[in-house]
Design a protein that fits this description.
Helix content is 42%, strand content 13%. With 284 residues, the protein is an alpha/beta fold. A seven-stranded parallel beta sheet has the order 3-2-1-4-5-6-7, sandwiched between helices. Strand 4, helix 5 and strand 5 (162-167) form a beta-alpha-beta unit. The model has no long low-confidence stretch (mean pLDDT 97). The structure holds beta-D-glucopyranose (BGC).
Amino acid sequence: MVLPSYNLDRQRELIAMYPQQPLKGQFALVTGANSGIGEGCVRHLAAAGAGVVVNYVRGPEAADAIVADIVGSGGRAIAIMADVSNEEQVIAMFKQAVAEFGTLDIVVPNAGLQQDSKFENMTVAQWDLVMNVNLKGQFLCAREAVREFERRGFRDVSRALGKIVCMSSVHEVIPWAGHVNYAASKGGVKLFMQSLAQEISDRRIRVNSIAPGAIATPINKPAWDTDAAEAKLLDLIPYNRVGIPDDIGQACVWLASDASDYVVGTTLFVDGGMTLCEGFATGG
Ligand code: BGC
């Protein structure tokens, strides 16, 4: 399949999807927002009316291009470089975001990566990198988010004090051979999100996760970029379509908006039915 690309015209089309501008007056930060699912989220949040921070760690050109499309279509956006696994850099990023926008209402700890390996060959470096970005990164960003929501107090743009949308994966429940570090990190995100929601929901901070299935992005390119690979992937997807970043961006807008105000501590699976275990459709 060919991944649909984003540009200024596409950004204008996204804006037309949100005529009621549900996030108007709010400010959102998305980590790992210069490609893939993060880009889908940040473009949709901006299209729905939010001012956005496009975080990236490598690839400033891609982040700048996203900012240019959002600003060019009448929105507000800035790019900020920070490694989400580095405490000082995360703190500095939030400081810069608040200096620019005044506050943040929505934080999407999305940055994530894979370091796949046969288990007995997996190095400590591969284990640590995945855990540091996928799990510690979510902890550091969510912690700064909570601190900022508390500092700023309620304002009249949302019923919640703040919203955190963690990017998980179907692999928070589906075991994944050959990807033990990644599946362990996403299993961690599941209880991280739920425990945090349990701890802070009474302060009107909503914490939820999105668990994407197979979304065509750079992280899984070999799984969809040839016809043979795509056919094999579709065997795992009852809905028979590989996802695209827009599928996740739309879910992200809903979880960040007051339309989901009573949704707390939940994982929203956006996976074309991947978690239905397609293999059992004809057997078992
Ligand atoms: C992984 C992808 C994979 C998908 C479905 C995601 O979390 O990053 O590589 O295609 O799960 O298995």
